[in-house]
UniProtKB/TrEMBL annotation:
It comes from Pedobacter miscanthi. The lineage of its organism: Bacteria, Pseudomonadati, Bacteroidota, Sphingobacteriia, Sphingobacteriales. This is MBL fold metallo-hydrolase. It comes from the Bacteria. Keywords: Hydrolase. PANTHER family: HYDROLASE C777.06C-RELATED, HYDROLASE C777.06C-RELATED-RELATED. It holds the Pfam family Lactamase_B_2. Residues 34-224 form the Metallo-beta-lactamase domain. The keyword Cytoplasm does not apply. GO terms for molecular function: hydrolase activity. The keyword Hydrolase applies.
Length: 254
């Protein structure tokens, strides 16, 4: 399995519009962060987790030529806004894309993309098959078993996903012991780390490191990073060897 980080930034991305901080002005390409999303390529399927506002450019940048499924973590705009950009796969590949989301997230998709679900169809609409995710209940995409589990983004439930030895979590602030039992034993963990200062709905850098140590994965990658965290080069020097900052375009293989 190969995982590509399509984006590793928070909801505003990095650089932030009109910001003149040292991170936003950094010439380092690793400090240029689009909204958070990953591409997962298994032996038989191509999957993305979340399709944010930068989705079209992310797919073009990584030269993605196929797509089978989209998994959604939650309904915030920085995670769903690009769903319409699946249309080329519909019409060039003659494929209907499987979309997996909890019932609450499906309600948001039906509100934000009402035209996809309207009774009256017209040419050019995105074509999807909607599947209901129930946290704690495994499902399969091709040969891969997907384990969804719930974490909390302050008061909003978020779905994390585990595929084999790989676990992906974004927008987490608290994680129950029940969900931790689904994560434990992962060899590769991806977890959000917004900034160093306390935040009501996101792990701080310190909280993310503590959680990574609790999980004990061989390698943990930090994502959903804001400009407040600091420059990539500087933060990397502060991290223990088993924890790394992810960056846009990073690829890992399992």
């Amino acid at each position: 399995m190969k995982v590509t980080f399509l984006g590793t930034g928070t909801s505003q991305g990095v650089p932030v519009i009109a910001c003149n901080c040292e991170v936003c002005l950094s010439p380092d390409k690793k400090d240029k962060r689009l909204r958070t999303s990953i591409l997962i390529e298994t032996a038989d399927k191509t999957i993305v987790v979340d399709s944010g506002p930068d989705f079209r450019y992310q797919l073009l940048r990584e030269n993605v030529k196929d797509l089978d499924a989209v998994l959604f973590t939650h309904e915030h705009k920085d995670h769903i806004a690009g769903l319409d950009d699946i249309r080329p796969f519909n019409y060039l590949l003659h494929k209907v894309i499987d979309v997996y989301a909890t019932e609450r997230v499906q309600t948001a998709l039906k509100r934000e993309f009402y035209y996809i679900f309207a009774e009256t169809k017209y040419h050019g609409l995105p074509q999807i098959n909607l599947h209901t995710v129930t946290n704690g209940q495994d499902f399969k995409i091709g040969e891969s078993t997907i384990t969804p589990f719930e974490v909390m983004h302050h008061l909003l439930p978020i779905t994390g996903y585990r595929i084999g030895d790989f676990t992906y979590i974004t927008d987490a602030k608290t994680i129950s012991e029940e969900s931790f039992s689904k994560i434990k034993g992962s060899k590769i963990l991806v977890i959000n780390a917004l900034q160093k200062e306390p935040h009501i709905s996101h792990f701080t850098l310190g909280e993310a490191i503590a959680f990574a140590d609790k999980v004990g994965a061989a390698t943990t990658y930090l994502t959903h990073i804001s400009h407040n965290l600091g420059k990539h080069e500087d933060i990397e020097k502060e991290l223990p060897n088993h924890i790394r900052l992810a960056y846009d375009g990073l690829q890992i293989e399992l």
